[in-house]
Amino acid sequence: SRLYHLLSGKEIAKRIRLESNDEIQKIKQDVPEFKPFLKILQIGARPDSSTYVKAKLNASNESGVACDVEKLPENISEIELLEKIKDINNNDSIHGLLIQLPLPKHLNETKITNAVSANKDVDGFHRYNVGELSKRGGEPYFIPCTPNGCLKLLKETGIPLKGKNAVIIGRSDIVGTPVSSLLKNENCTVTTCHRYTENLPQILQNADIVVAACGQPNFVKGDWLKQDAVVIDVGINYIPDSSKKSGRKLVGDVDFESCKNKASFITPVPGGVGPMTVAMLVKNVLQAAKTAESQNNKLPTCE
Amino acid sequence: SRLYHLLSGKEIAKRIRLESNDEIQKIKQDVPEFKPFLKILQIGARPDSSTYVKAKLNASNESGVACDVEKLPENISEIELLEKIKDINNNDSIHGLLIQLPLPKHLNETKITNAVSANKDVDGFHRYNVGELSKRGGEPYFIPCTPNGCLKLLKETGIPLKGKNAVIIGRSDIVGTPVSSLLKNENCTVTTCHRYTENLPQILQNADIVVAACGQPNFVKGDWLKQDAVVIDVGINYIPDSSKKSGRKLVGDVDFESCKNKASFITPVPGGVGPMTVAMLVKNVLQAAKTAESQNNKLPTCE
Ligand SMILES: NC(=O)C1=CN([C@@H]2O[C@H](COP(=O)(O)OP(=O)(O)OC[C@H]3O[C@@H](n4cnc5c(N)ncnc54)[C@H](OP(=O)(O)O)[C@@H]3O)[C@@H](O)[C@H]2O)C=CC1
Ligand SMILES: NC(=O)C1=CN([C@@H]2O[C@H](COP(=O)(O)OP(=O)(O)OC[C@H]3O[C@@H](n4cnc5c(N)ncnc54)[C@H](OP(=O)(O)O)[C@@H]3O)[C@@H](O)[C@H]2O)C=CC1
């Protein structure tokens, strides 16, 4: 058995939350009314959504970001929801607006996410932000949280990304595709894989970096990996486990047990990408608040 | 020496122009005032831009699309140009607006291309169209012409694209990146390469499809290719050639002589992607005109 490094998103995320908190306190010394504010709209009451919303609320609190969760009825009409969003867009004291996905079937997700002001779109899902992210030298207001969390984890390894072969398993709009864009911008050579990829184990033989975001429990196997690959596991899957009180167990898209012996760095599930996602969200809200303040000429323009 | 198929963009483009012409004449039988109209703005007088503009004008004429080229002075101010664009955006008789790139240095290319109405952006460079193209199930009004020309050429081979390994050499916003998006949407497994890609010949060993768009004369060599690869050469490069009256010779990004013996299909330069680009532009104008007409309820909604 050889040594691998566990990339603990949990610890890194905690550090980021503390840093955000410090930064906010420091700004408040000069601008007492500085108050980064995140609004979350949760439509309906899916239990998984409630769990995620709670994690976002907790992380906001720990980071010194005010967060208000508003629960809206499952059967809200599109017009009512759009009106709500418009009010929030126009409310200067709210810096970030997050609509918890997925939405009930009668609501058009594309339409709703694009109704959020691009400069309050802390999830990074607005067409403007998606378009800018996909371009070279594009300037999105916000980078989507999960992909940005993956990138931060990769940077934590200290390994230069330039010229590395990165294989992304998954091409969804919220994970796979933006991860591909981000790593391309870091000058990785990026291969994007999906359901119709025919020779994935062979493609992985050449991968210095693997990001698994396919929603398939324990999918990536150790003997597919190149020796010393860096492995980021985005997956959140529940599989039956009679030894647990809940009757189920959380696993990623990577078969951790076989992969840890090949990887140089590997993220655990839970405690890997999940907490990073939430930390990146909070950072986006802080950034939005700083931009708003600097536009009020109260702060110098921030990086 | 073995057999390869020459993918003649020249011939396919000609067919597309004739088809467009037929379609326009047919629509005119029902809607006599139907008149697809392309406006081209050329700022300054770069000789290469003049050549490209002329090709677009000729192709429009051959396809039955009206085309007006307006030449603006090199030193036009950004405000004047933006005013001009606004007028054209508001002019219902103009269906497509193309600003010939590159622009003089004092004009911000991003700002100018984004000033064109997304639904007249027949080049497909507007942020809206870029963003939609990069998303799964996104709905751009227009697909950028050169990438779409590459896709059409690949489809001409009759080879199913699903599951094929495609390697794209180049990641520019106007060629490499949108080609990657289009082929990903066709369910290819896509690898995007660039200047920092470290082992390109090795990566190409696995490529069923190669799209070369790196602007490096005769760059891709035959012994890098997988046997029977399909090779699309986007490059337009001039190299010195004393045997020519002009003193120069046009070559692509692919070393045609060594590659033709490995490839199953290969595009020539000239006569490959170039004419397809112009044909796709004309098709975009026709589509814009059809959409405008159908919104006037004069035509049934078109595909
Ligand atoms: N940690 C976090 O904070 C977050 C975690 N997640 C988790 O990440 C995972 C991915 O999420 P998301 O992108 O939204 O999921 P989607 O279901 O939207 O996308 C899954 C992607 O994986 C591809 N895929 C599916 N099966 C295979 C296979 N056998 N081989 C190769 N590719 C395959 C799909 O291909 P195709 O396109 O062909 O269908 C698709 O592109 C999930 O487990 C999700 O729970 C998601 C968001 C946040
Ligand atoms: N036929 C047609 O209608 C058209 C043809 N073209 C032609 O296509 C070619 C590409 O155009 P365009 O995309 O605008 O060019 P750009 O110069 O904008 O982009 C070139 C791309 O190739 C990459 N590249 C450069 N050198 C290498 C190398 N040695 N190995 C691997 N990748 C490399 C660059 O990488 P990096 O990002 O790291 O710099 C960059 O991404 C040109 O020859 C152009 O004339 C363009 C438009 C239309």
TrEMBL record, chains A, B:
Residue ranges the record marks as coiled coil: none
Is Signal set as a keyword in this record? no
Q: Its Gene Ontology biological processes?
A: purine nucleotide biosynthetic process; tetrahydrofolate interconversion
- In this protein, which residues make up the domain named Tetrahydrofolate dehydrogenase/cyclohydrolase NAD(P)-binding? 144-291
State the GO CC annotations.
cytosol; mitochondrion
- How does it associate, per the subunit comment? Homodimer.
Instruction: Please indicate which part of the intact protein appears here, giving the first and last residue numbers and the full length.
Output: 54 to 356 of 999
Name this polypeptide is given: C-1-tetrahydrofolate synthase, cytoplasmic
Listed GO MF terms: ATP binding; formate-tetrahydrofolate ligase activity; methenyltetrahydrofolate cyclohydrolase activity; methylenetetrahydrofolate dehydrogenase (NADP+) activity
